[in-house]
């Protein structure tokens, strides 16, 4: 666990994180509005940027970076595992609909 | 409590009466909130997957968001990101024992959150007015002939997934603002919430979906009143930190909704 003194000493880092999040958002908007990539590549790039932003929010703003290793791994592993399972349930089926030509 | 002590003594760990160290190195309220957020992330995950699923097999997918909508959504994103910063500063103030600044930072967070809700409400109202509607929901007369009326008929899953996903998020932001209001102002927040509900209900036209949606504030008012009157307490730094976890989670979810829903459906003119 952490204390107030530790937080106050490093308060500046939260302003940096906030600035980084705003800059990443601006990059997303510019990329999307200028159609820099084709659709699938754009989706990949936007998702990568979103994962970076969410890692900053979870790690710093939600303080998960400062929690115990057990807490960090339990939360991260359980949520990511569920999303991977969801991915394998949903997306092959969506692709199958396209291949079968179902309207 | 007595049972826990007895069990602890019986297994022979540590000194008699001493509590075992918490498994996750954190107090129980924080662990509870993390577990709730993990489960809630699956709710949003399912909605985002449903949105993406529909998008993959629907060709062509509508791209109704003009530059005005993207600008609006970008400002909304900036509001949420800024609210996370003020929330962190509120947690610091609470940990210092500075209740005045804790309250000020939480109020600033609520202002950003409210700005997000209002901007989102305006965006919804504009889209509904242009014809992006759901069956059974109130709509103005202009919706029948708006530029998006054909989208609602040809690709009804767009409106369904868009409103379903963003409504769930807007509800979470609203709950977050009420949660922070209870922590920051306690019983003083109840009349403010009541006044907001009444003003919204009386001022928003009946053909606007928020004329009915504003009743979420009434439900929030009732639940908050029950909590505040049945279990009155001064909220400490731990309570503020736990409320902050919820607030940051709301911000986090938007980081995925914004690119997937808005940026991937940008209308280039």
Gap between N and C termini of chain B: 66 Å
Largest sheet of chain A: none
What's the total number of strands of chain B?
Answer: 0
Q: How many whole angstroms does the radius of gyration of chain A measure? A: 19 Å
- Report the top-level CATH class of chain B: Mainly Alpha
Number of strands of chain A: 0
Helix count, DSSP H or I runs of 4 or more residues of chain A: 4
Give the oligomeric state of the chains in this entry, treating copies of one chain as homo and distinct chains as hetero: heterodimer
Helicity level of chain B: over 70%
Strand content of chain A: under 5%
Principal-axes shape call of chain A: flat
Overall 3D shape of chain B: globular
Percent of residues in β-strands of chain B: under 5%
CATH topology of chain B: Four Helix Bundle (Hemerythrin (Met), subunit A)
- Rg of chain B over CA atoms, rounded to whole Å, is 22 Å
CATH superfamily of chain B: Cytochrome c oxidase, subunit III, four-helix bundle
**Spatial separation of the terminal alpha carbons of chain A:** 55 Å
- Outline the low-pLDDT stretches of chain B: 1-12
The number of distinct structural domains of chain B comes to: 1
Largest interface: A-B, 52 and 51 residues
Structure description:
The complex is a heterodimer of chains A (103) and B (269). By secondary structure, chain A is an all-alpha fold. Chain A has two domains: 1-67; 68-103. Chain A is 81% helix and 0% strand. Chain A contains four helices and no strands. Chain A is flat and about 55 Å long. The N and C termini of chain A lie far apart (55 Å). With 269 residues, chain B is mostly helical. Chain B has a single domain (28-265), classed as Cytochrome c oxidase, subunit III, four-helix bundle (Four Helix Bundle (Hemerythrin (Met), subunit A)), CATH 1.20.120.80. Chain B has ten helices and no strands. Chain B is globular. The termini of chain B are far apart. The chains are: A mainly alpha (103), B mainly alpha (269).
């Amino acid at each position: 666990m952490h204390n107030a003194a530790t937080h106050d000493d490093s308060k500046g880092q939260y302003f940096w994180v906030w600035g980084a999040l705003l800059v990443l958002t601006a990059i997303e908007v510019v990329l999307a509005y200028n159609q820099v990539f084709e659709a699938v590549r754009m989706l990949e790039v936007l998702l990568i940027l979103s994962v970076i932003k969410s890692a900053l929010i979870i790690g710093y703003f939600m303080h998960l970076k400062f929690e115990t290793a057990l807490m960090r791994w339990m939360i991260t592993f359980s949520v990511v595992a569920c999303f991977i399972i969801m991915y394998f349930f949903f997306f092959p089926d969506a692709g199958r609909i396209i291949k079968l030509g179902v309207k | 409590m007595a049972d826990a002590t007895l069990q602890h003594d019986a297994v022979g760990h540590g000194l008699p009466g001493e509590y075992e160290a918490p498994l996750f190195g954190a107090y129980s309220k924080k662990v509870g909130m993390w577990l709730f957020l993990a489960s809630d992330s699956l709710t949003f995950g399912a909605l985002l997957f449903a949105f993406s699923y529909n998008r993959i097999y629907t060709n062509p997918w509508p791209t109704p968001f003009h530059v005005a909508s993207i600008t609006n959504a970008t400002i909304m994103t900036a509001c949420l990101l800024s609210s996370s910063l003020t929330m962190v500063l509120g947690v610091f103030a609470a940990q210092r024992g500075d209740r005045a600044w804790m309250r000020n930072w939480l109020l600033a967070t609520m202002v950003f959150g409210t700005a997000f809700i209002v901007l989102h409400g305006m965006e919804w109202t504009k889209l509904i007015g242009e014809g992006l509607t759901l069956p059974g929901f109130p709509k103005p007369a202009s919706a029948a002939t708006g530029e998006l009326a054909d989208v609602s008929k040809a690709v009804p899953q767009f409106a369904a997934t868009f409103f379903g996903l963003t409504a769930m998020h807007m509800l979470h932001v609203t709950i977050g603002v009420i949660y922070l209001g209870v922590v920051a102002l306690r019983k003083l927040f109840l009349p403010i919430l009541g006044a907001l509900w009444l003003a919204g209900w009386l001022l928003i036209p009946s053909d606007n979906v928020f004329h009915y949606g504003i009743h979420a504030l009434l439900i929030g008012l009732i639940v908050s009143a029950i909590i505040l009157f049945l279990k009155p307490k001064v909220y400490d730094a731990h309570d503020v930190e736990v409320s902050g976890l919820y607030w940051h989670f709301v911000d986090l979810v938007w980081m995925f909704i914004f690119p997937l829903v808005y940026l991937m459906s940008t209308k280039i003119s």
